[in-house]
Amino acid sequence: MARRLEDARILMYSHDTFGLGHLRRCRTIAHALVEDYRGLNILIISGATIAGAFDYRARVDFVKVPSVIKLRNGEYTSMASHIDLQETLKMRESIIRHTAETFQPDIFIVDKEPMGLKGEVEETLAYLKARGTTLVLGLREIMDAPHLLDAEWKKNGTMQKIDQYYDSIWVYGPPDFYDPLIGLDVPQGVRRKMDFVGFLQRNVSSSKTSVNARKDNYILVTTGGGGDGSDLIHDVMNAYEQDSSLQQKALMVLGPYMPAAERNKLLSKGAKISQIEVIEFDNHMEELIAGATGVVAMGGYNTYCEILSFDKPALIVPRVKPREEQLLRAQRASELGLVEMLLPEQSANAAIMADALKRLPHREPPSKSAGALRLDGLNHISETVGHWLDSRGRHLSVVGAE
Fold first, then answer.
1. By CB neighbour count within 10 A (0-12 exposed, 13-18 middle, 19+ buried), where does 66 fall?
2. Is 120 exposed, middle or buried (0-12, 13-18, 19+ CB in 10 A)?
3. Which of 7, 196, 36 is nearest to 103 (CA)?
4. 225 contacts 254 by C-beta, under 8 angstroms
5. Contact by Cβ (8 Å): 76, 69
6. 31-72 pLDDT, tens per residue?
7. Is the pTM here over 0.90, yes or no?
8. pLDDT of residue 64
9. What is the rounded distance in angstroms from the CA atom of residue 198 to the CA atom of residue 209?
């Protein structure tokens, strides 16, 4: 049963430099909210180069800001090589501010970067706070290794700014899984604002069918955005090349950000292995995960939510630098019995990888483990947003399904 609101507006910000994680998380939340509330309009500000490759529901749209990419050393550069980084950041900041002024949102949700990329959202936060917009910071359940996050935030005075600007902090995970601010000196004001909403459950869209959907028994190998995923794909292919008893069919998704030279190498390597099909990108990954017997992944936040949502046996080979987020998530999930984990150096050993791949289809799904976790993040967010909008005078009335 949807509820109707009188012209309510939510603005979301997703800086998106290297992968698809931030945009996919914002889009998931936006779609769940417009389904629950008629009369709600959501605009997502995104830096993702392929923001337009996804479909958006009615009343969800996006504004694209010039893209910035993160290099492997953690530094940033403009996507358009002829434009200076400072100029790109100035344009992004101006578009973000102008969008907020024109759209006049009731709620502004910022994904992961409290002040935006290089501080680009701070001026907009100050403007919206002055006009009474509810400001929300959304954090992944794991941000990074505490010493790395602490150093980054201290350098920019981030913790004080979070306390100063934000009304609420949503942690996209349950409290018994992980605390994203563990090991940091967190002021009481910030602690009080933290709301562990839970993991964000996923489902397969009823209206769209992936052109890559399959009916056979396959494992899915996914690298997320793919910018740093070529090692994992190589490792799985090497296991198939070196162990002829590995007959399990595999569908491999390289990801849209995999560098062209690596992509071409993997496409030709994969073409020689009969059990493997290699594709570059699919904007309906949920469908491919739902149909798989098991999943091999690097374990970014969204893939992890999908593994739990569709209850799939999983083998995780996490990225370990420049951020340790995937490693920490894989260690914790493996400790709870939810997934099997291999470190990159183990994954590079073809015999170890082949054995893990053979075990995968026989592994118990996450729901059978003692660490099974609820996925109620979207419901929790929806209730919170409804309460806020109602109290802002965006009157709620229940309407029947159209």
1. middle
2. buried
3. 7
4. no
5. yes
6. 999 999 999 999 999 998 888 888 899 999 999 999 887 776
7. yes
8. 94
9. 28
